[in-house]
């Protein structure tokens, strides 16, 4: 595979003639570049009027590679052939270089150019491109490629420093200015020969050669090029290879993409998301651009107007900036009724709102870049989890959250600079186990999570937010205008017809299973747990009647009914011969669930074995419990429910706890309390309407 490098435009704020004088001081040796051992002129020629000066050199470079590789190659230095064409009249210098050593095995080609700045003739521009093609090298092709690219990019950076060093030396020695070239008077015969050579000289300078003219490899017209000062000022400090990746991807888009070309900051985010692997970043960016075009995302900020209900109950909003100048977004997730919002506005409206926040975040980053005079490409999100409980584990809500994470990760990579999570409750590790596999590893490393009051004091929010920005509800001095959220009234829910139209009911039915509970005939689901410290989660809606929910641990596998794996069609828990405590025990306190209620809960198991989730009809005190046969054949009352359960394996749960501990501060107490398997089991259920 051929490796390519393309530099941005580097600008010297000195006239071309002075820069050329500094460049010539690099030869025949240059102490400022230790790997450059020296050079000798092979051929030199000038046009009759002195306007064009051609120099061909042989340059020796020391090989900086492991001793074993140098020994196998049998060389301590390599030779490059360089051809410089300096045109004083046009004020240009074109440089071509290629390797002579190992030319049959390795092909290195480089093109450089010095030209006058298009908008300021007293400044000089420098551009550089190169390619590396390793055909074979004693089985060390991969190692050689890494060494070569590392050394080359190091020398690229050093090259500008050397020119600036010699510029300063010239000025300090009393040469701050060198006059421009003027044509000399020549005899008539020489003038005629010069006229004949003019065209050939022109071909020699600008015409085809064994290596493509560097000007044709550049990004495009002068207005389309990126200069190094702009990159550092607006995009941040990049390595030479990172600059090259940005320029190549930008160039490719300009040549192939038919729609709107993304801003440089946007392109750079995709490169960072793929560790500057050009092909992977290009694939990711192309998919995102197609998605943006399909969903008209570029017009979202102009067309999207959140429903009044969202503005009132969506507990999130922008709030100044953090200490690094990043825009700050606050989300009071624990106070937000995600289930109510989904039932009132639908999943698509919530997704549109999240996308509008992401679009607004990019816009604010651009504004802060201009305001603070330094590159700001990401924002900080502060998430308050006070009030987070099992109702936030409502499965359609969790699935919607995972979908939003997937969309944002794919189309807004590297936009999150830091995520501060405060007041994380004990239920948070369960939610984290569900969502963390869908979050990119680079993103997870930006999470800082605090339980209880650990966010207060040194090491907490004050390390990232100024005191006068910390919101009042977190003990700060700043009044925060972010909506407080709260329960969405059921009267504002979409009707079933509206939900059917939005395809929500169909999606929810696919998530849940239905069950009928008769008097004396409970519905039971068996769950086999192979290892302690696994987590059983449940989520069910009572559609008709009142039921009692319990969780049991048994020492033997119950007989299953014919309807579904793991579920019994009916019958008593205590089969013939079963005895409480000896054969089974209750591990979750009975919970009376009323008609219309929605229940979410979880249980961290203490022992392996079989667990039973049981729903039985609620009987008022003093009522007679019928047997199974009577219940099945009598037209008595029935209860109906929709339920969903899931097991988070011990390995996954403990792995998520480890990932929490690796990206958190002040979280150890919560981590220990939640993941403990040597003490009592942890369980909870919550009625969420």
TrEMBL record:
Q: Where is this region: Disordered?
A: 199-221
The domain of life is: Eukaryota
Q: Which SUPFAM superfamilies match?
A: CRAL/TRIO domain (SSF52087), CRAL/TRIO N-terminal domain (SSF46938), Supernatant protein factor (SPF), C-terminal domain (SSF101576)
The family database entries (InterPro entries) matched by this protein are listed as: CRAL-TRIO_dom, CRAL-TRIO_dom_sf, CRAL/TRIO_N_dom, CRAL/TRIO_N_dom_sf, GOLD_dom, GOLD_dom_sf, PRELI/MSF1_dom, SEC14/CRAL-TRIO_domain
| Gene3D superfamilies assigned | CRAL-TRIO lipid binding domain, GOLD domain
Residues of the PRELI/MSF1 domain: 3-175
Q: Which Pfam families match?
A: CRAL_TRIO, CRAL_TRIO_N, PRELI
Q: Which Gene Ontology terms of cellular component type are present?
A: cytoplasm
In what residue span(s) does the CRAL-TRIO domain sit? 306-482
Positions of the GOLD domain: 509-647
Show the PANTHER family listed in the entry.
SEC14 RELATED PROTEIN, SEC14-LIKE PROTEIN 5
| Name this protein carries in UniProt | SEC14 like lipid binding 5
The lineage, from the top, is: Eukaryota, Metazoa, Chordata, Craniata, Vertebrata
């Amino acid at each position: 595979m051929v490796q390519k490098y393309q530099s941005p435009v580097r600008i010297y704020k000195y006239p071309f003639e002075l820069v050329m004088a500094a460049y010539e001081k690099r030869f025949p040796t240059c102490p400022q570049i230790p790997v450059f051992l020296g050079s000798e002129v092979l051929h030199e020629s000038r046009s009759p009027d002195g306007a064009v000066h051609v120099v061909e050199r042989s340059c020796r470079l020391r090989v900086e590679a492991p001793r074993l590789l140098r020994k196998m190659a049998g060389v301590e230095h390599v030779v490059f052939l360089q051809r410089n064409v300096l045109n004083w009249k046009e004020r240009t210098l074109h440089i071509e270089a290629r390797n002579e050593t190992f030319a049959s095995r390795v092909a290195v080609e480089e093109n450089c150019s010095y030209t006058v700045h298009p908008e300021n003739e007293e400044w000089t521009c420098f551009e550089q491109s190169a390619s590396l093609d390793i055909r074979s090298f004693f089985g060390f092709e991969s190692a050689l490629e890494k060494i070569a690219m590392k050394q080359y990019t190091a020398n690229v950076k050093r090259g500008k420093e050397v020119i600036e060093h010699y510029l300063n030396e010239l000025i300090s020695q009393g040469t701050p200015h060198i006059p421009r070239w003027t044509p000399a008077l020549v005899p008539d015969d020489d003038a005629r020969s010069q006229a004949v050579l003019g065209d050939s000289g022109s071909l020699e300078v600008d015409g085809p050669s064994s290596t493509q003219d560097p000007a044709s490899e550049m990004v495009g017209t002068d207005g389309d090029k990126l200069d190094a000062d702009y990159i550092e000022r607006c995009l941040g400090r990049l390595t030479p290879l990172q600059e090259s990746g940005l320029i190549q991807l930008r160039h490719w888009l300009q040549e192939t993409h038919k729609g709107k070309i993304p801003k440089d900051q946007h392109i750079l985010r995709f490169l960072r998301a793929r560790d500057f692997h050009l092909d992977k970043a290009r694939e990711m960016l192309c998919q995102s651009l197609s998605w943006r075009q399909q969903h008209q995302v570029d017009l979202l900020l102009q067309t999207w107007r959140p429903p009044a209900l969202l503005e009132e109950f969506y507990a999130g909003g922008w709030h100044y900036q953090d200490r690094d100048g990043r825009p700050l977004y606050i989300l009071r997730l624990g106070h937000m009724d995600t289930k109510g919002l989904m039932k009132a506005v639908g999943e698509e409206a919530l997704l549109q709102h999240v996308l509008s926040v992401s679009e607004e975040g990019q816009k604010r980053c651009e504004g802060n870049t201009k305001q603070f005079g330094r590159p700001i490409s990401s924002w900080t999100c502060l998430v308050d989890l006070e009030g987070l409980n099992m109702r936030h584990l409502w499965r359609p809500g969790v699935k919607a959250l995972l979908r939003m994470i997937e969309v944002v990760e794919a189309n807004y990579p590297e936009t999150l600079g830091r995520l501060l999570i405060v007041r994380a409750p004990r239920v948070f590790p369960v939610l984290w186990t569900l969502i963390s596999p869908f979050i990119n590893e680079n993103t997870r490393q930006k999470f800082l999570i605090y339980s209880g009051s650990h966010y207060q004091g040194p090491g907490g929010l004050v390390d990232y937010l100024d005191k006068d920005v910390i919101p009042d509800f977190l003990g700060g001095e700043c009044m925060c205008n972010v909506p407080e959220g709260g329960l969405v009234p059921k009267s504002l829910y979409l009707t079933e017809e509206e939900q059917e139209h939005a395809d929500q009911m169909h999606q929810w039915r696919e998530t849940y299973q239905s069950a009928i509970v008769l008097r004396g005939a409970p519905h039971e689901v068996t769950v086999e747990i192979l290892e302690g410290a696994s987590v059983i989660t449940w989520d069910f809606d009572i559609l008709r009647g009142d039921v009692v929910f319990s969780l049991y641990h048994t020492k033997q596998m119950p007989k299953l009914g014919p309807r579904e794996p793991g579920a019994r069609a009916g019958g008593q828990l205590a089969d013939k011969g079963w005895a409480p405590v000896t054969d089974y025990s209750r591990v979750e306190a009975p919970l009376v669930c009323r008609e219309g209620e929605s229940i979410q809960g979880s249980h961290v198991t203490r022992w392996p074995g079989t667990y039973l989730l049981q729903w039985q009809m609620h009987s008022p005190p003093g009522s007679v419990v019928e047997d199974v046969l009577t219940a099945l054949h009598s037209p008595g009352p029935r209860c109906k429910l929709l339920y969903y359960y899931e097991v988070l394996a011990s390995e996954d749960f403990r792995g998520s706890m480890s990932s929490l501990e690796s990206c958190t501060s002040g979280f150890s107490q919560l981590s220990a309390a939640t993941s403990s398997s040597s003490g009592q089991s942890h369980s909870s259920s919550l009625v969420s309407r």
